[in-house]
Amino acid sequence: MLVLGIETSCDETAASVVRDGREILSSVVYSQLVHQKYGGVVPELASRAHMTAIVPVVEKALNRAGVGLPDVDGIAVTQGPGLVGSLMVGLMFAKAQAYALNKPFIGIHHLEGHLFANLLEDTDWASPFVFMAVSGGHTELILVNDKGNYLSLGATLDDAAGEAFDKVAKLLGLDYPGGPEVEKTARGGNPNFVKFPRALLDEESLDFSFSGIKTAVVYYVQDKPREFIREHLADLCASFQEAVVEVLAEKCIRALSKTGARALALGGGVACNRRLREVAEERCKALGVRLSVPDRALCSDNGAMIAAAGDFRLSRRERSPWDITARSRMGLS
Ligand code: KG4
Ligand code: ZN
């Protein structure tokens, strides 16, 4: 089965053709550059940029896969959560194509997409397992009882982890998106230079909070001379990154012990972070727990993960009605 997957929930216009939910025949990701000078995503500009990019991006994905639209067996598209104006572009485009060509059509939850990015590379899933979605819009721990059977264990009460990376990067004068910039700058820095707060680690809960650490960085930087900040940029980035990574990894381990699950999967842009991947690996190894982390290109937003999740749902004969709408908030079920 060939599925075309389309993703436009934030600032990436992405399309991909995947065979049988596993084999990526093409994956085209256009990252909108227009937001860079604002230091964050401007929703109105994002939806306009999606409108210009959607046709060439889908065409490129089909061309690279060596297929035409009539050859695909189904079309999957992100329905939510995300920016409504952005989601709408992908959703309406996918709907129109599927309707015109009479193809099976399915709306996908963005986080289910990030989860299925794991399945593209690691075919041997042992359920139940814990999945941590960690991106610019989400930080959530989910118990995956089986494909399509999910239980939320905890989530961020305020900022998402990626959002904290982006905000701290902006504060330190680094470019957007901040995650990769902070990671790069942190190289060679001292992670113990400042002990930033590790929120909610003294509680049982599997929720997260990242607004406190961001404020702690603001206060730390506020009364220091510019020279000092410039000189210790690597140390500050490393210290911030270490605090976030420690909290993320620790909560994963707690989720594993609370549920008795023996495997952990990661997904979302922050899962690109090398320090997070390293710490997750160390901790899982010590516990004898299996770890699945997609290739970096599949951790951040892409169409292949949506096609993979779409393949699963379409194979079960699920279809979305033609009147589904874009949803900024949406539960995973
Ligand atoms: O999954 P994604 O592409 O889009 C959303 O669904 O949000 O994630 C983007 C987020 C951004 O906040 C970005 O700064 C963060 O992922 N990110 C990283 C890294 N690469 C991307 N955060 C930390 N370290 C990285 N290497
Ligand atoms: Zn995402």
CATH architecture of the largest domain: 2-Layer Sandwich
- Structural category: alpha/beta
Task: Tell me the CATH topology of the largest domain.
Answer: Nucleotidyltransferase, domain 5
Number of strands: 10
Radius of gyration from CA coordinates: 20 Å
Classified by CATH, the class of the largest domain is: Alpha Beta
Please mark out the parts with pLDDT under 50 across 5 or more consecutive residues, or reply none: none
Q: Strand order within the widest sheet?
A: 3-2-1-4-5
Q: Note the total helix count.
A: 11
What form results from the Cα inertia axes? Answer: globular
Mean pLDDT over the full residue set: 96
Terminal CA distance reads 24 Å
Strand content: 15-25%
Count of discrete structural domains: 2
Question: The biggest beta sheet, please?
Answer: 5 strands, mixed
- What share of residues is helical? 40-55%
Strand/helix succession: EEEHEHEHEEEHHHHHEHEHH
Describe it.
- With 333 residues, the chain is α/β, with parallel strands linked by helices.
- The protein has eleven helices and ten strands.
- The chain has helices at 43-65, 84-101, 110-121, 161-171, 178-186, 211-222, 226-231, 233-259, 274-287, 296-299, 303-315, and strands at residues 2-7, 12-19, 23-31, 74-80, 105-109, 129-134, 139-146, 149-155, 263-267, 290-292.
- The chain has a five-stranded mixed beta sheet, with helices on both faces. A five-stranded mixed beta sheet has the order 8-7-6-9-10, with helices on both faces.
- Strand 6 and strand 7 (139-146) form a beta hairpin.
- Zinc ion binds at residues 110, 114, 135, 268, 301.
